[in-house]
Q: What sequence folds into this?
């Protein structure tokens, strides 16, 4: 299995290499075999990428927004045409099942390019009447923006950042996660094919050190990070020390509150999607499932039955539901939380193992896992695990569920399942989370803003809100009479 790109980086409209950089092995998580070898960016590569972005940005900012949008929409079309090939690349890089990557990864990247490609032409400033004189506002780009990605949705994350950044007239240097470096290069190539001038979307490879070099570069105006809260705090600290803009899309430990009157099959399906999709590696996962006492037994029975039917295995087999975790390190982390949960006194209701699957003995698989008898103060109920591990808790009253759902440092997402719509809206109105779902979970259409409350982040991706985060407002006062001066 090979997925070797033409070179490690993408700078000024073309692939670029610097073999002085330390080696980076790209591993297929299902077999642990090496599928590509890249080099981490040297300071020279970082400098070239930022400089080419800086040089290209000024003229891009003067291109008519409609024209900029047309290029993004063309890139969306190319992504859709190449969906199968890109989904396969994403599966090789992340280990996620192809039945997911075929519908979720390049597809959501294309949606972002299409949405911002369409929306930008109507993203204008305001005209403000001042009784004779008047004012207007201009939305101006920030300049060179840095995007830093996590490994769970590599091409989606790259496009969710690149599309609004480029639409508003910025240039971007994107650093994918060192675990999943491949698909951002494919996106860069596609943007070039769609007509994006060189330098406007550059990709450099590296780990945290390269990320920090980019954030601290004096020519960089903004950073958008998708990653953990710990990394977000470091990145935001560095960016704010230089008064740079920041969008932080960070982690979570989100609640799903399921009331007695919920539709059982929908609630079970929602909770499973919110815990096991992408092998549990989703920031907005609803990993604390609160069940009202009257539905508890029925829910657990159906949940167990449906979870036992999940097929783990070859990610490239279209019938496989769950692939492996992204890396050996991540599997160790998840397994150590499963051990911890048992030590803390939770009941391991289902799963918990690291199966050795025939033909994939070296893969980083973990079974979908359900803990019951979980208490709110246990670490498995408080910390983000980022694997297929669901904690089931029970509650009596609405007030209790809301208070316990909110008792966390995180605030990325939350879900409510009930047939009582008045209650659904009342509860959602009190949940401290940036994304809430009523009778659904983990759907993130580009038309809705996405981002966290509390420690889960700052700023928003997607929707028109993202355009605000990639532009700055200039206010212009226009005098139509004489200057009144006492001097
Ligand atoms: P991570 O924080 O370890 O790394 C994220 C990215 O930051 C990587 O590209 C990494 O190289 C880079 N990085 C690390 N240290 C840095 C530094 N000091 N300066 C600059 N860059 C640095 O996260 P991860 O393990 O790759 O991803 C999992 C985390 O991401 C989870 O916490 C998950 O919840 C979160 N996540 C959030 C969202 C969201 O939209 N809110 C989406 C996906 C993942």
A:
């Amino acid at each position: 299995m090979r997925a070797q790109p033409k070179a490690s980086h993408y700078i000024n409209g073309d692939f670029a290499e610097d073999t002085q950089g330390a080696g980076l092995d790209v591993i297929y998580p299902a077999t642990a075999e090496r599928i590509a070898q890249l080099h981490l960016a040297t300071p020279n590569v970082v400098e070239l990428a930022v400089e080419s972005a800086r040089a290209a940005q000024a003229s891009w900012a003067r291109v008519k927004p409609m024209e900029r949008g047309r290029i993004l929409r063309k890139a969306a079309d190319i992504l859709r045409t190449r969906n199968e090939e890109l989904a396969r690349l994403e599966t090789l890089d992340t280990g996620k099942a192809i039945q997911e990557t075929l519908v979720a990864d390049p597809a959501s990247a294309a949606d972002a390019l299409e949405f911002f490609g369409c929306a930008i032409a109507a993203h204008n400033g305001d005209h403000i009447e001042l009784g004779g004189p008047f004012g207007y506002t201009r939305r101006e780009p920030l300049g060179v923006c840095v995007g830093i990605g996590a490994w769970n949705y590599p091409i989606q994350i790259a496009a969710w950042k690149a599309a609004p950044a480029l639409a508003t007239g910025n240039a971007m240097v994107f650093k994918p996660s060192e675990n999943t470096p491949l698909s951002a290069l494919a996106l860069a190539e596609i943007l070039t094919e769609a007509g994006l001038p060189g330098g406007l979307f550059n990709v450099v490879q590296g780990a945290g050190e390269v990320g920090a070099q980019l954030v601290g570069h004096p020519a960089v105006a903004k950073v958008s990070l998708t990653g953990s809260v710990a990394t977000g705090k470091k990145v935001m600290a560095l960016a704010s020390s230089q008064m740079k803009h920041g969008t932080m899309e960070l982690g979570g430990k989100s609640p799903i509150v399921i009331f007695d009157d919920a539709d059982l099959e929908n609630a079970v399906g929602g909770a499973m999607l919110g815990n096991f999709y992408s092998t549990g590696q989703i920031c907005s996962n609803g990993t604390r499932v609160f069940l009202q006492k009257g539905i508890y037994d029925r829910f657990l029975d159906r949940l167990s039955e449906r979870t036992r039917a999940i097929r783990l295995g070859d990610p490239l087999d279209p019938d496989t539901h769950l692939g492996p975790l992204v890396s050996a390190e991540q599997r160790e982390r998840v397994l150590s939380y499963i051990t911890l949960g048992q030590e803390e006194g939770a009941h391991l209701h289902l799963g918990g193992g690291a199966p050795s699957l025939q033909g994939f003995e070296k893969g980083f698989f973990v079974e979908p896992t359900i803990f019951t008898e979980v208490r709110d103060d246990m670490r498995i109920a408080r910390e983000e695990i980022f694997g297929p591990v669901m904690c089931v808790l029970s509650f009596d009253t609405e007030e209790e569920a809301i208070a316990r759902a909110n008792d966390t440092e995180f605030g990325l997402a939350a879900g409510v399942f009930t047939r009582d719509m008045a209650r659904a809206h009342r509860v959602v109105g009190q949940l401290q989370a940036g994304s809430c779902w009523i009778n659904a979970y983990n759907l993130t259409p580009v038309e809705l803003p996405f981002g966290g409350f509390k420690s889960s982040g700052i700023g928003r991706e997607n929707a028109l809100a993202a355009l605000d985060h990639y532009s700055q407002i200039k206010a212009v006062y226009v005098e139509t009479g004489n200057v009144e001066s006492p001097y």
In short: The first strand starts at residue 9 and ends at 11.
